[in-house]
Write a structure and sequence with these properties.
It is a single chain. By secondary structure, the chain is an alpha+beta fold. The chain has a domain of 72 residues. The protein has 15 helices and ten strands. Strands 1, 2, 3, 4, 5, 6, 7, 8, 9 and 10 form a ten-stranded mixed beta sheet that branches. The two termini are 39 Å apart. 38% of the residues are buried. Bound molecules: manganese (II) ion. Manganese (II) ion binds next to β1.
């Protein structure tokens, strides 16, 4: 991915996150409560709820909020989603990454209500997310458009739990239908002025899904997992046919993101092995192909008999010893006429690292899987509160990695940056710090040592927390003493 400068889509402003997230609840008292909760979570996202809210009456109010029968995940997310849509609408084109993760909680002494059995010791549910990312210039996370929680009803123990989830998921919900549902829902939210390119990994490879996307004129990049049959039998199968095409131009070097703790998702772990961050040299082949409807769908009237798609075959040249080489077969609605077009599609697909980071930000950064809440209902409200917080963690990580040379005052509130320059660790602060300089300074407030390499987002966030606490103390002291804050 080439690094381009662009206007920032958002500032790292903890105060604003709570305000934005709470703004659409439709009840002033609940909105005020939610703003406080999210604002507090932003400052200490991985702390336990009792540590975050040590005041007894306040912590009771938080638990009342989590147990409020009038609230739902969808309602709690409304404000964040509305602001995500507004950010997307300020751009012409966005990428929407769709992916599923498993949320898993320790069963402990007592089974928690409404969670499906993952194993003897773990219970949980799945979450299917649609994450919106900019493509004009930078590729910055804009926020979450949709989070569909789901379970496999057969893995629930009680009829009452099954009925609860059936209501929650909707009668028409099917696990395989979640991809299309997320895509349709995102398109409805974004409206006609935003052009969305939908990204799915191999789990999204399904003939009915692809034919619906093509039929409706949706834009997409989906990684294929099946070596599908071509309509013309003499051409053989898809992967052999595309693999026999000539290379397109010179290979290019790209940065591959790290992939750790392979996710326990509906698919097997084998398809997502761990991978350290590394550079890879990729080559591309391209072809337009016409697929034949799979034999298993031969009586399915909803599926067209043939389907024409653009295909890219992306392969790693000379992978390091012991590492699985990259090989992606991508199918797309986008033009593959020029090499530039093709590399742009590869870059769209590579934005998928953001959704993996988003899941990590939720699970580790916001400690969502450690929340000691007793039912799926309270956990889902807690998930809705954690999503805007996880998004700010993701944004910080993104800025450090992808927009290091932008001026820091484009992402940090001015007064906060002014204060950071006063407490700048190791020597005098630069007059106009870049994003990387500012984030490194913040990371060292969080205990990061430069010789340990680039800061991870936990240390970054610990530093950000420290900075906010120091800044609040400074503001309080200045207002008491009446001294100049500038
Ligand atoms: Mn996936």
């Amino acid at each position: 991915m080439r690094k381009k400068r662009s206007e920032p889509v958002y500032r790292l402003d903890a105060e604003r996150v709570g305000k934005e997230a709470a703004c659409e609840l439709g009840d002033v008292r609940l909105e005020r409560r939610m703003e406080r909760i999210v604002g507090t979570m932003c400052k200490r996202p991985s702390a336990s709820l009792p540590a975050m809210f040590p005041d007894e009456s306040e912590s009771e109010a938080v638990y009342r909020f989590l147990r409020n029968e009038r609230l739902s995940l969808g309602r709690v997310l409304r404000g964040h989603v509305a602001h995500t849509v507004a950010r997307a609408q300020s751009l012409r084109t966005v990428v929407v990454i769709h992916d599923t993760t498993e949320f898993s909680f320790a069963t402990g002494r007592e089974r928690r209500h409404g969670l499906q059995r993952h194993s003897e010791a773990r219970q949980g549910f799945f979450g299917h997310v649609s994450l919106c990312v900019s493509v004009d210039g930078a590729r910055a996370p804009l926020g979450c458009l949709w989070m569909q929680p789901f379970v496999r009803l057969a893995h629930l123990d009680h009829e009452a739990e099954r009925q609860d989830w059936q209501r929650l998921m909707g009668r028409d919900f099917s696990e395989s239908g979640r991809w299309l549902k997320g895509i349709r829902h995102s398109e409805r939210l974004l409206g006609p002025k935003v052009s969305a390119i939908h990204i799915c990994d191999r789990e999204g490879d399904s003939y009915p899904l692809l034919s619906k996307l093509v039929g409706d004129g949706s834009r997409f990049v989906v990684r294929l997992s099946h070596n599908r049959t071509l309509a013309c039998p003499s051409l053989g199968h898809l992967q052999d046919f595309v693999g026999n095409q000539p290379l397109l131009g010179e290979p290019r070097t790209v940065e591959l993101s790290e992939r750790l703790h392979a996710e326990k998702r509906p698919s097997s772990q084998k398809s997502h092995p761990n991978r350290p961050r590394r550079t890879a040299t990729l080559s591309i082949r391209r072809a337009e192909v016409t697929l034949r409807r799979p034999a298993s769908r031969k009586d399915d009237e909803r599926c067209p008999q043939t389907l024409t798609l653009n295909i890219l075959d992306v392969r790693e040249v000379n992978p390091p010893v012991g590492q699985a080489p990259v090989r992606w077969t991508l199918c797309t609605s986008e033009s593959i006429d020029s090499a530039e077009d093709c590399w742009r599609i590869v870059d769209h697909y590579r934005t998928r690292w953001l959704v993996e980071e988003f899941f990590k930000a939720l699970k580790t950064g916001c400690a969502f899987e450690s929340r000691q809440l007793d039912s799926h209902k309270t956990l889902l409200i807690a998930l809705g509160l954690s999503i805007p917080v996880a998004w700010t963690l993701l944004l910080m990580r993104y800025l450090e990695r992808e927009a290091p040379d932008s001026p820091a005052d484009s992402v940090l509130p001015r007064d906060l940056l002014g204060f950071l320059r006063r407490v700048w660790p190791r020597g005098p602060a630069p007059d106009h710090p870049t994003v990387r300089q500012a984030l490194l300074a913040i990371a060292s407030l969080g205990g990061h040592f430069r010789h340990n390499g680039p800061p991870g987002w936990l240390v970054l966030h610990r530093g950000y927390q420290t900075l906010l606490t120091m800044f609040q103390g400074f503001l309080a002291a200045s207002s008491e003493g009446g001294c100049d804050q500038s």
